[in-house]
Amino acid sequence: MASSWDALAEKDENELHKQRLLNVEAKPFKRITDRLSTLHGLASSRARQPPTPPPENHGDGADGTTTAPATGGAQTPPASAKPGPDMAQLKQDITLDFAAFVSNIERLQLLLTANVKQRALYTEKRGRILATELQLRESNLQLRAQLEQARAMLAQRRRFDELADQITRKPALRPRAEQATNLAKLEEEIASLEAESETYAATWRERRDQFARIMDEAMRLRRQIRDEKEENERREGMDDGDDQMDTPVGGAHADAECNQTPRPGLASGNATPRPDGGNTSAG
User: Fold this and answer.
1) What does the buried/exposed string (b/e) look like for 212-235 if buried means 16 or more CB atoms within 10 Å of the residue's CB?
2) pLDDT over threshold 70, residue 155
């Protein structure tokens, strides 16, 4: 039968109190009460009993003692007189009853002290148990989370195993050693292609630099030619102006045509001689 440590209902708690050994607990108190009632009854009966009369004197003897009258028999007490209780025995019983009462009180006090200590100990243990319970709850939560992760990982691995079985069952697959050899060859080809790509990149950079230098040189030559052309045109313009100022009005144009520097595509009488010694003619 499994024991339950839950709090009892009020009815069950009252029944438990009724089932306690109340007779054993209350026995010393009842004995003291009975003894006190007995003493009270004795005191009350003696208070109600009339005092005993003194014995009558019928004559004095020769030695002065009182002698009872000769009745032919011993004097008997009255019929209503009862023998009194033994006071020594009664005193001893009362002493024992009070000793038992005192010991019972001390026992109850010791039980109370022990109960207080036990309650304090139970409170401390309860605190430790609650702290342990909290730690265990947190540990259970962590373990439950780890269990869920482990289950998810196990399901994933099983799925991977199924996929691996489906892959490895194909007859077109090659052995692992051959695949490793092919992978090594592919890696070598990749390395050679990367080296070739680096070489092409370096060549392309060099050619691009050369083309940039050529373009710079061409632009520089173009600027130089343009500057020289502008300078020649400026000089020709200055020479034409000087000739027009020095020559008369009538023959200015003819003299200018005779003395000006020949231009490309034009023929004049005083053109620059050719290497064969002849002049350039107009026709």
Assistant:
1) eeeeeeeeeeeeeeeeeeeeeeee
2) yes
- Cα distance from N-terminal residue to C-terminal residue, the chain: 145
- In the block, residue with structure tokens 């009462």: 101
Q: Which residue has the tokens 């290497």?
A: 275
Q: How confident is the model at residue 67 (pLDDT cuts 50, 70, 90)?
A: very low
Closest CA to 65 of 74, 55, 53: 55
The more confident residue out of 270 and 115 is 115
Q: Is the pTM of this model over 0.85?
A: no
| Mean pLDDT, rounded, of the chain | 76
* Residue 98 near residue 36 (C-beta atoms within 8 A): no
Of 89, 84, 94, the C-alpha closest to 42 is 84
Encoding tokens for residue 81?
Answer: 């007189």
Which one-letter amino acid corresponds to residue 167? I
What value, to the nearest 5°, has the Cα angle with vertex 122 and ends 120 and 128?
110
Q: Can you tell me the distance from the alpha carbon of 95 to that of 93, in angstroms, rounded to the nearest whole number?
A: 5
DSSP codes of every residue in 54-80: PPP---B-TTS-B-----SS-----TT
Question: Which token pair is 150?
Answer: 């482990």
Angle among Cα 87, 92, 96 to the nearest 5 degrees reads: 145
The Cα–Cα gap between 206 and 123 comes to 89
CB 243 within 8 A of CB 255: yes
At residue 66, what are phi and psi to the nearest 5 degrees?
-85, 135
CA distance 101 to 108: 10
Identify whether the C-beta of residue 252 lies closer than 8 Å to the C-beta of residue 244.
yes
- Length of the chain in residues, anyone? 283
> Do residues 256 and 244 lie in contact, with contact meaning Cβ atoms separated by under 8 Å?
yes
